[in-house]
Design brief:
Layout lengths: L3 E6 L3 H13 L3 E7 L5 H8 L3 E5 L7 H11 L5 E5 L5 H9 L3 E4 L3 H13 L7 H13 L11 H11 L4 H8 L3 H15 L4 H10 L4
C-alpha cells in the first residue's frame, strides 16, 4: 500500500524536527515537506498533492486559521489537522469553523500523532469533547441563510441554467439577453461564489443547494 503523504507547517524548529523524525519512522506515512509558515500552502497543494496537512495555529506571516480558509477555497476535502498548545481556546474553535478537520494538542504529539492522523485520513474529526460541544452549540445558533451569496434573481436564473449544462448562447436565448450580459452575470456569479470556473460554480451551486 502506498504511504499517505503529508505536509507540515510549524514554526517551532525543535518541534518541527521531532515531528519530522516521527513521520520518517512510520513507513505508512511520507513527509513531502516541512515549512515554518503556510504563505505558499496553495502552491504546495498543487505541486506536491499531499493527502493531509499538519498545521500549527500560531505562525508568523499567516496564521494556521487563515491558511485553512485559503486551502478550503480551493480544496474542500483534504484533511487538515491543527497543532495547538491550548485546548479550549477560541483559536481552535475558529480553526474548526474555518474548515479544519480536527486538532491535536502539542503535549500529546509523542503519543497521539499517528492515531490522530489515521482518524483524520479516515474522515474522522479528532477533537476534545469540549471543543466539539462549542462547535455544536455554534451550529445550532447560526440561522440558515436563505441567500448566503446575495445573488440577484437574474444571477440565480443564469446559475440554474448553467447547472443544466446550457451554453452561454442558450442562456442568452432562454432569458432574452445578449451574450455580453450573460458573460457579465457569470462574472458576477464567480465573484460572489469565490470560484474561477463553470465547473466550480456548478458544483458549489449543487452542493450548497443554491439552485
Amino acid at each position: 500500500m502506498m504511504p499517505h503523504s503529508i505536509l507540515l507547517y510549524e514554526d517551532n524548529q525543535l518541534l518541527s524536527e521531532s515531528i519530522q523524525s516521527m513521520l520518517r519512522l512510520n513507513s505508512s506515512l511520507k513527509l513531502l515537506g516541512a515549512y515554518e509558515n503556510p504563505v505558499d500552502v496553495n502552491s504546495h497543494l498543487q505541486s506536491k498533492n499531499p493527502d493531509l496537512l499538519l498545521m500549527d495555529i500560531d505562525m508568523p506571516g499567516m496564521t494556521g486559521i487563515e491558511a485553512v480558509a485559503k486551502v478550503r477555497a480551493v480544496d474542500k476535502d483534504i484533511p487538515i489537522l491543527m497543532l495547538t498548545v491550548f485546548d479550549d481556546n477560541q483559536h481552535v474553535f475558529d480553526a474548526i469553523c474555518a474548515g479544519a478537520s480536527g486538532y491535536l494538542l502539542k503535549k500529546h504529539i509523542s503519543t497521539k500523532l499517528f492515531s490522530a492522523i489515521e482518524e483524520a485520513l479516515e474522515g474522522g474529526a479528532p477533537m476534545s469533547p469540549s471543543i466539539a460541544r462549542m462547535v455544536l452549540v455554534s451550529m445550532q445558533q447560526k440561522p440558515v441563510l436563505e441567500n448566503p451569496y446575495q445573488l440577484t434573481q437574474k444571477e440565480k436564473e443564469v446559475l440554474t441554467s448553467l447547472s443544466k449544462g446550457n451554453s452561454y448562447k442558450m442562456i442568452g436565448v432562454e432569458y432574452e439577453i445578449s451574450l455580453d450580459t450573460v458573460r457579465s452575470h457569470i462574472r458576477k456569479i464567480y465573484e460572489k461564489l469565490h470560484v474561477h470556473s463553470q465547473t466550480e460554480a456548478v458544483s458549489k451551486a449543487i452542493n450548497e443547494k443554491l439552485v
